[in-house]
Amino acid sequence: MATSRPFTLTHVALATLASTATAQAADDAATSLPTVSISAPRESNRAELTGFGDIPLTRSPLQARVIGEEQLKDTGAQNLRALTSQDASVSDAYNSVGYWDSLTVRGYVLDQRYNYRRDGLPINAETAIALDNKSRIELLKGTSGIQAGTSAPGGLANLVVKRPDADVRSATLAWRGANSVLGAVDLGTRFGTDRVFGVRVNVAAEHLDPELRAAKGKRHLFALAGDWRPTADTLIEAEVETSRRSQPSQPAFSLLGDRVPSANRIDPRINLNNQPWSQPVVLEGQTASLRLTQRLNADWSAKAHYGTQRLRTDDRLAFPYGCDAEGNYDRYCSDGSFDLYDFRSENERRVTNALDLSLQGRFATAGLAHQLTAGVLFSRFKARFEQQIYTYADVGSIDGSAVTPPGPVILSDNTDRTERNTELYLRDVIQLTPALSTWLGLRHTRLHRDTVTTSDTEATGYGQNVTTPWIALNYEWRPGLMSYVSWGQGIESQVVPNRPLSYSNPGQALPALKSRQLEVGLKGRTEALDWNLTAFDIDRPVYARDDSVVPGPLRSDGSARHRGLEAGIEARTGAWTWIASAMLLHAERTDSADPAVDGQRPPNVPERVFKLQTQYAVAGLAGLSLQGGIVAESDRTLLPDDGATRIPGWARLDLGARYAQKIDTRTLVWRIGVDNVLDRRAWQESPYQFEHAYLYPMAPRTWRVSLSADL
């Protein structure tokens, strides 16, 4: 969004018990060129996001989850928020229909500008990210300083693009919700002498008509990926993607005075953005990349990877905010009315460019085996905005019946940003004994950031140099059983907003926030069972405004500490497959100058989460499998200084079926599913954004049907 509708990094969370079962295929021998793994029922054993090459996840001292293409299709995943049903460490963070997706990992909100990757390169997630041309999603859990120069703690998400690794000719037709219809084609082939050339095309178009009212829209995507293997040691890959989505977005509900409204009395299909003057949010994106992988000899390879992303956004909303009649600006009025604003920030442009140069190889010295990766990442980011409209329109109502005029056209400033980062990184895995290894990582980040308003005033500029280390010890007790301990740091960089009426130190560059994490884990694997258990402790410094004076300075104000347990299993018992994860999370603000905040659990952070995906292969009909999913989360708080105001916990049941039908040499794959089978009504999340408490309802019962066919 534009800066007046910002994405707040909530100080979230505390301890977690849940790691997702990493489904893994047998450890392949190292290959000179990267491969793409597609999840069958068992997921990929490697994740590009970890940064440690071809070392399997089962032998890596960190927690990561790989969700493959087939699992995404079987669960009806359309966007990144689908991760919230896949892994207990992932939860909602202001997830609005028609807008971009926002996630928390281990209770921390992922930063849209710094915590997302595409084939390992940084991208901006302030857009609609389509999954039609993605082969898998990789989720790294934990402090991310070794993989990212600046990022929020909690983890990183990496989107892996489909490549022409095999011949593919598939078409899909899908229906869901009230009347959403999708058509998609996936074509891939290899050709030329020894099949040295490859090409893959993904095309998708969708009419959007969800169960939510006043939210009709449309989207399309075109993606092309190609590669060339001129020699056995050289791989050149290129890809380009363009997409557009136009759809009205969904405002949230809120507290009604001092009470939490009953979710049973709120129709989740109501869209408060239903004014005659409401316009859709338009999210356009063009992304392209070029990657060269060169094997130098049997032990060493080099890689050069360049990516560019260009986003354009029209951000528009009939925006409910506060209750001036009762003097409450963090909630709605006690009678169900609210102040309604006309928000429009059009032609927002965001550009991200990144170049990663790296060298990876194996060597031995002093009797110790090393697997080394060294490199440099250059990234540039620009955000250019026009003046925006944010004006009072009239009084709205939570029953969606109020009709108001638009607000007056009064333009106000936005803030442009320019960022330049250079990151030097070094990672080394040292095999001390056949069972014991140490993992070392070091990342040095040089950053420079500038901001200026759209009227060319209140300019700021600052630079910082920060180094983040990471170290782990990994012990393999026997094949298939290992334990580890790790410690690492991450950084975030912040400047005081250019608002002199709100802050006494506007535009001041603040010292980098340096988070740290300690993690202890245990992983096991047999032919029928993968499991893991992890304990972690993340401490992240916090800046907050001193409200004892007006205007007050933005200053250091203690930390947000998250301590937790995660557990995950993937098991196969006869015809059954089980993927389950759980999290216990204790999150609190510590050492705050404000006694009302100190010791409180952050808003929108559940303490207990359980998630299950199960599949049963029907013996009497080959190709048919029945599927089920359970998502259960405990209560959440709404306000940063009042832990007693909460929404209840909830549980949701999803069901589905998949039938692979053989007709001659072709295969038809039928899928049917229903999410929220019992049509449960509940408040799914309670984000505290823009100094306001919000409530998002759980989506009503939603049916989905699809057919995929070989061409």
Any chance you could write out the topology, listing elements then pairs?
Blueprint: E1 63-68, H1 69-74, E2 90-92, E3 103-105, E4 108-109, E5 116-118, E6 121-122, E7 134-141, E8 155-161, E9 168-176, E10 180-191, E11 197-208, E12 217-231, E13 234-247, E14 281-295, E15 300-320, E16 337-365, E17 368-384, E18 388-397, E19 411-412, E20 415-431, E21 436-453, E22 460-478, E23 481-492, E24 513-525, E25 529-545, E26 554-573, E27 576-590, E28 608-617, E29 624-633, E30 636-639, E31 642-647, E32 650-663, E33 666-675, E34 683-685, E35 688-689, E36 692-693, E37 696-697, E38 702-710
Parallel strand pairs: 5-8
Antiparallel strand pairs: 1-7, 2-3, 3-4, 5-6, 7-8, 9-10, 9-38, 10-11, 11-12, 12-13, 13-14, 14-15, 15-16, 16-17, 16-18, 17-20, 18-19, 20-21, 21-22, 22-23, 23-24, 24-25, 25-26, 26-27, 27-28, 28-29, 29-32, 30-31, 32-33, 33-38, 34-37, 35-36
